[in-house]
Specification:
heterodimer, A: alpha+beta, Ribosomal Protein S5, domain 2, B: Ribosomal Protein S5, domain 2, about 25% helix, disordered N terminus, RNase_PH (chain B), rRNA processing (chain B), Exosome complex component RRP41-like (chain B), exosome (chain B)
C-alpha cells in the first residue's frame, strides 16, 4: 500500500525504538485533534474530526421505527462506515468494502456493548417511545474522507462528537389507542432531546512496531506494524471492547500491558476530546 | 462419520477459576443453572475428526454440543491472475451458514465478519512464506449453530489446515467466554449468547503461548479480564491437546 524504501523503513522503526517518531512525536502522543460539529444540516447530528491528515465525518440520523419483538424495550442502533474513493484509489468499487466492514464491526463491538445491551455507550432503552410499538432507529454513518492511519480512533471520536451534537425530536404520543393498534405520534420540530454522551467510550489503537507500541500511527507507521490492538475505554476506565488486527501473535502478558497503557492514554484523550467538542459546540452556536 | 472406538468426545474444561476464586456465585445466583446443566467453567465435550471431505486437500469436522461445523481446505493452488505477485502465500477464508443452521431460517447471514475474523485468527499461525505465489482456500460451513460458532470454526479450520499438510507454527485453538451478570460462563450455548452482557473470544497457539486473535464486547473491569483470559488460555491449551490427539489418531490409522 505505502511504498517505502528500506532506508525509510529503518528510519521509522529506529525512531520508534528511540521514542522519537518521524513527525517528532513520542510513542504515546496523539496528533492534534480538531473537531467541528454540525457540519451536515440534513442529519440530526454530525461532526468532522481531523487527526493529522486523517479526516472523517460522522452523521447521526434518527427515524421512527418498530422495536424488534425480542427486545421490545430497546431502540435499534446501526453503525456503518464508508470508505470513499476520494481518500485513496484502492477504495474504488469494492476495494474499500473489506476495510469498511472491518471498521463497522469494530465500532459496533466497541460502542454497542453486549447482546443484552449492557455496557453500551448509547443506552438503547432511551430510544423507546412506546414500548413494543414505536422506537427511534439510530443510523450512525461514518465517512472516511482522507486516510492517514488510525481511522478507527478518529471514527470513534467523530461518532462521540456527532452524538453529543445530536438532538432527537421530542415525540408526543396521541391519545391511548387499543393495544393491537399502532399508536399515533406527533413529532415536534421545536423541542429536541439531547443524548447523554458521557458514557460513550473512546478507542485507543496501540500499534506494535518492533518491540514497542505506539498510539495514533500514521499510514507509513501502520505499514510497518506487526499487529495492532484497538481498545475502547470509557470514562470509568472500564474496557468496552477490544479487537486485534494484524496476523502476528502476541503474548498474553503483552496484551494485558497494552490494556493498562490504553487506560492511561484514554484519560487524556477523553479530556482533550471533551474540551474540543465543547469548543466546537460553542463556536457553532456563535455563527 | 462413524466414531471409532477410543475416540469418544473429550472435554477440555479449564481447571482454574473454581479453585482460585470459590465464591463467584452468591445468594440469588446460586439456583441458576446453565441450559444444558453444565458448571460455569465446564466446556462441552469436543469431538473432532479429520478427512471429512474426500475431494479437498484437507478437511475436518467438529462437533461441540449441538454446534456442528465442517471445514475444507483447498490448495495451495495458483493465485488468480488478477492478483499481484506476492512472495508469501495468500490465505482466503470464507464462513457460511446453512439455511437450516439457525432457529430462524437464513439468519446465518448476520455473520459477515466471521470470514475476516477466521482469516485473522489463522494467518498468524501459518508459515505463509512456504508457498509463495499461491493461495490456500479455507471454506467453513456451519451445519448447525448451537453457540460459540466462531471459536469452533477456528479450531476446526486449523485442524483442516494441518490435515492438508499446510506448514504451521502451531495449531490454533479458540474458546469464548460469556459474561452473564457477574458470572463468567465458558463455551456459551446459543441461548446464553443471546442474553450475554459481554463476551470474550480468544484464539491462541497453545504450545507457543501466543494469542493470535482476541475480541471483547461489553463492559469489562481489569480483574474480570484477567480471570476470563486465564480461563480461555487454560481451556485453549486443553483443547489443543484434544485436537492433537485427533491428528495422531488419523495418522496412526492411515499407517495401518
Amino acid at each position: 500500500m505505502v511504498g517505502l524504501s528500506v532506508g525509510e523503513k529503518h528510519f521509522i522503526q529506529g525512531g520508534i525504538a528511540q521514542d522519537l517518531r518521524s513527525d517528532g512525536r513520542k510513542r504515546l502522543t496523539y496528533r492534534p485533534i480538531y473537531v467541528e460539529t454540525g457540519v451536515i444540516p440534513q442529519a440530526h447530528g454530525s461532526a468532522r474530526v481531523r487527526l493529522g491528515a486523517t479526516d472523517v465525518i460522522a452523521s447521526v440520523k434518527a427515524e421512527l421505527g418498530k422495536p424488534s419483538a425480542l427486545q421490545p424495550d430497546k431502540g435499534k442502533i446501526a453503525i456503518y462506515v464508508d470508505c470513499s474513493p476520494t481518500a485513496a484509489p484502492m477504495f474504488e468499487g469494492r476495494g474499500g468494502e473489506e476495510l469498511s466492514t472491518e471498521l463497522s464491526v469494530a465500532l459496533q463491538r466497541c460502542l454497542l456493548g453486549g447482546k443484552s445491551g449492557a455496557g453500551a455507550g448509547i443506552d438503547p432503552t432511551s430510544l423507546v417511545v412506546v414500548e413494543g410499538k414505536v422506537c427511534w432507529d439510530l443510523y450512525i454513518d461514518g465517512l472516511v474522507i482522507s486516510s492517514d492511519g488510525n481511522l478507527l480512533d478518529a471514527l470513534a471520536a467523530a461518532i462521540k462528537a456527532a452524538l453529543s451534537n445530536t438532538g432527537i425530536p421530542k415525540v408526543d404520543v396521541a391519545v391511548e389507542t387499543r393495544s393491537d393498534e399502532q399508536p399515533e405520534v406527533n413529532i415536534s420540530d421545536e423541542e429536541f432531546l439531547q443524548f447523554d454522551t458521557s458514557g460513550i467510550p473512546v478507542i485507543v489503537t496501540l500499534t506494535k512496531v518492533g518491540r514497542h507500541y505506539i498510539v495514533d500511527a500514521t499510514s507509513e507507521e501502520e505499514s510497518q506494524m506487526s499487529s495492532a490492538v484497538s481498545i475502547s475505554v470509557n470514562r470509568k476506565g472500564h474496557i468496552c471492547g477490544l479487537t486485534k488486527r494484524g496476523g502476528v501473535g502476541l503474548d498474553p502478558s503483552i496484551i494485558l500491558d497494552m490494556i493498562s497503557v490504553a487506560k492511561h492514554v484514554s484519560e487524556q484523550l477523553i479530556n482533550k476530546l471533551d474540551s474540543e467538542i465543547a469548543a466546537a459546540e460553542a463556536s457553532e452556536e456563535e455563527s | 462419520m462413524a466414531a471409532k472406538p477410543g475416540s469418544a468426545p473429550v472435554t477440555y474444561s479449564p481447571n482454574l477459576g473454581q479453585k482460585t476464586r470459590p465464591p463467584i456465585f452468591k445468594d440469588n445466583d446460586l439456583d441458576w443453572v446453565r441450559p444444558d446443566g453444565r458448571g460455569f467453567h465446564q466446556c462441552r465435550p469436543a469431538f473432532f475428526r479429520t478427512g471429512a471431505v474426500n475431494s479437498a486437500s484437507g478437511s475436518a469436522y467438529a462437533e461441540l454440543g449441538s454446534t456442528k461445523v465442517i471445514v475444507s481446505v483447498f490448495g495451495p493452488r495458483e493465485s488468480k491472475k488478477a492478483m499481484m505477485y506476492s512472495d508469501t502465500g495468500r490465505l482466503n477464508c470464507n464462513v457460511s451458514y446453512t439455511t437450516f443452521a439457525t432457529p430462524v431460517r437464513g439468519q446465518g447471514s448476520d455473520h459477515k465478519e466471521f470470514s475476516s475474523m477466521l482469516l485473522k485468527a489463522l494467518e498468524g499461525a501459518i508459515m505463509l512464506e512456504t508457498f509463495p505465489k499461491t493461495t490456500v482456500d479455507v471454506f467453513a460451513l456451519v451445519l448447525e449453530s448451537g453457540g460459540s460458532d466462531l471459536p469452533v470454526v477456528i479450531s476446526c479450520a486449523s485442524l483442516a489446515l494441518a490435515d492438508a499438510g499446510i506448514m504451521m507454527y502451531d495449531l490454533v485453538a479458540a474458546v469464548s467466554v460469556s459474561c452473564l451478570g457477574k458470572n463468567l460462563v465458558i463455551d456459551p450455548v446459543l441461548e446464553e449468547e443471546s442474553y450475554q452482557d459481554g463476551s470474550l473470544m480468544l484464539t491462541c497457539m497453545p504450545s507457543r503461548y501466543e494469542v493470535t486473535q482476541l475480541t471483547f464486547t461489553g463492559e469489562w473491569s481489569t480483574p474480570d479480564i484477567n480471570e476470563a483470559m486465564q480461563l480461555c488460555l487454560d481451556a485453549c491449551s486443553k483443547l489443543g491437546k484434544v485436537m492433537r490427539t485427533c491428528l495422531k489418531e488419523a495418522a496412526s490409522a492411515s499407517q495401518e
